[in-house]
Amino acid sequence: MALHEIKHPLVRHKLGLMRGAALSTKSFRELAQEIATLLMYEASKDFVLEPYTERGWAGDVTVERVAGKKVTVVPILRAGIGMLDGVLQLIPGARVSTVGLARNEDTLQAHTYFERLAGELDQRIAIILDPMLATGGSMVAAIDLLKKSGARDIRALVLVAAPEGIKRVTDAHPDVEIYTAAVDRGLNEDGYIMPGLGDAGDRVFGTKQKHHD
Ligand SMILES: O=P(O)(O)OC[C@H]1O[C@H](OP(=O)(O)OP(=O)(O)O)[C@H](O)[C@@H]1O
Ligand SMILES: O=c1cc[nH]c(=O)[nH]1
Ligand SMILES: [Mg+2]
């Protein structure tokens, strides 16, 4: 199963607040990070544990730790930065691989302008962060790039996904697990998710706002 829509009440509540056009930049940022933490919790449910012995207060005790693969978190600039701290709260030692992608507003094609990846990607679980999965062009470009550099276990955390983007990603990369807080209706004529959140990058960074009535 490649798509996981997380219907937890806290996720739904927080995402509902984010849809408000009057929400402050501060609150939008806080909620994006909080939902990212909750999505990361879900996306780590199958992390493998291994037992080890710890010297406890009453002698040796068998405890567990996450085994094997290490994690790299991959925020897609800019908007993915809005989810980074929320994920690092749960996995503070993760390496951060940064990918800069901008969607051309007219053609909707994603253009890669920055790439700085962690090493040993073949031995890491890669967690891509981007609030919006719209046409899917940006996400497919990020996955292509990670796979080219050796990544095999790739998961994507998004706040809102359009059916068009889900199809494009699952057709191109059926092995990638997508975790989303919502699957919305679809794209409008400008390629924006409806009802969506508007321009997530602008809302996270407090830059220009567009209204689509
Ligand atoms: O699925 P797609 O159709 O590719 O669209 C989604 C992309 O568009 C937005 O970024 P944008 O290009 O606006 O850049 P920004 O994060 O710098 O605002 C969003 O954060 C995704 O990266
Ligand atoms: O709805 C959308 C689509 C792409 N990028 C956004 O920020 N919002
Ligand atoms: Mg982007």
From TrEMBL:
Keywords of this entry = Allosteric enzyme, Glycosyltransferase, GTP-binding, Magnesium, Nucleotide-binding, Transferase
Q: Where does 5-phospho-alpha-D-ribose 1-diphosphate bind?
A: 78, 103, 130-138, 199
Under CDD domains, the record lists: PRTases_typeI
- Cite the InterPro entries for this sequence: PRTase-like (IPR029057), PRTase_dom (IPR000836), Upp_B (IPR034332), UPRT (IPR005765), UPRTase/APRTase (IPR050054)
Q: How is the cofactor bound?
A: Binds 1 Mg(2+) ion per subunit. The magnesium is bound as Mg-PRPP.
Which SUPFAM superfamilies does the record associate with it? PRTase-like
Pathway assignment reads:
Pyrimidine metabolism; UMP biosynthesis via salvage pathway; UMP from uracil: step 1/1
Task: Provide the cofactor list for this protein.
Answer: Mg(2+)
Q: According to the UniProt record, what class of enzyme is this?
A: transferase
**EC nos:** 2.4.2.9
A single GO molecular-function term is: uracil phosphoribosyltransferase activity
Phosphoribosyltransferase domain boundaries = 7-207
Positions that bind uracil: 193, 198-200
Instruction: Using the record for this protein, list the coiled-coil segments as residue ranges, or answer none.
Output: none
Q: Which reaction does it catalyse?
A: UMP + diphosphate = 5-phospho-alpha-D-ribose 1-diphosphate + uracil
Mechanisms controlling activity: Allosterically activated by GTP.
- Family under the similarity heading: Belongs to the UPRTase family.
The role this protein plays is: Catalyzes the conversion of uracil and 5-phospho-alpha-D-ribose 1-diphosphate (PRPP) to UMP and diphosphate.
NCBIfam families according to UniProt: PRK00129.1, upp
Q: What is the protein name stated in its UniProt record?
A: Uracil phosphoribosyltransferase
> What species was this sequence derived from?
Orrella daihaiensis
